[in-house]
Amino acid sequence: MRIAVTGSIATDHLMTFPGRFADQLVADQLHTVSLSFLVDNLDVRRGGVAANICFGMGQLGSRPVLVGAAGFDFDEYRAWLDRHGVDTGSVRISEVLHTARFVCTTDRDHNQIGSFYTGAMSEARLIELKAVADRVGGLDLVLIGADDPEAMLRHTEECRTRSLPFAADFSQQIARMDGREIRTLLDGATYLFSNEYEKGLIESKTGWTDAEILSRVGHRVTTLGSRGVRIERTGEDPIEVGCPEETAKVDPTGVGDAFRAGFLTGLAWGVGHERAAQVGCMLATLVIETLGTQEYTLGRVNFMERFTKAYGDEAAAEVHAHLV
């Protein structure tokens, strides 16, 4: 099963300020703020939803196709993804723009000041999925993740026109989209991904009930935080899968991307929705125990030991055949 993942490719530049932002603000001068913060450290991390998902899929051995736009500074990031099993041959490289970048400073009270530079991501709307499909010999599923909004709309329409099964996954972009755009992006999707809060927001913005949305998509996949995930389909009982036990909660960033990586890989293996969700939850657990979205290591033995403990011998035997 050949899966393409469209969406953002970005780097995060994270800094820590040892003081408090509030101590630097003068109440009657907020209309003319001019501040500079001397920070203690800088972490540069690879990110972007499409790149995070593809990294996880590559770790599981499924060779995903990354589809997105990056800048002329992408060489090092590309080499990293290539080395971890990702097909980067369909990434569009801008000749004039840098790769998208999030720059954020956090103070000692965990308040944050951040900026997101779209950069080359704006060129994702120029990518033609047919060219991607032709290069890799066809596509069985396209995940349309958070990206340049025009790119998301174009990719969705092209999937419909060319009868390509697609998964709708708005994540961070849902806040800026109106009901009409959301209806366009989800109607006819084979899978609709969201968390619980986004689920309510989708229903509020579209004006469609949960039942109406279920009638317009193949499956609705809702992540439930520490409670795992629920998969629904009209006329069938929901599938609910819990999370494995965590060794620590280090950083929740990228946990949703990791779940999608595991779930999509399970679909590629053909193990069914319950097993796919279990793989997704196991991978998400590894990410929450790690600082950074692509800094975890998938040790096969450790993965299967923990998977067996969480989901039992029968589930483990089915997954083990594919993971090895």
Summarize the structure.
37% of the residues lie in helices and 19% in strands. The protein has eleven helices and 14 strands. The strands form three sheets. It has an eight-stranded mixed sheet with strand order 4-1-9-10-11-12-13-14. It has a four-stranded mixed sheet with strand order 3-2-7-8.
Please explain how this structure is put together.
- With 324 residues, this protein is an alpha/beta fold.
- The chain has 11 helices and 14 strands.
- The strands form 3 sheets. Strands 4-1-9-10-11-12-13-14 form an 8-stranded mixed beta sheet.
- The mean pLDDT is 94.
Keywords, please?
324 residues, alpha/beta, four-stranded mixed sheet, 14 strands
Q: Helical stretch count?
A: 11
Overall, the morphology is globular
Q: Summarize the helix and strand pattern as letters.
A: EEEHEEHEEEHEHEHEHHEEEHHHH
**Strand-residue fraction?**
15-25%
The class by helix and strand makeup works out as alpha/beta
Cα(first) to Cα(last) distance is: 17 Å
Rg result: 20 Å
Q: Kindly state the mean pLDDT as a whole number? A: 94
- Strand order in the sheet with the most strands: 4-1-9-10-11-12-13-14
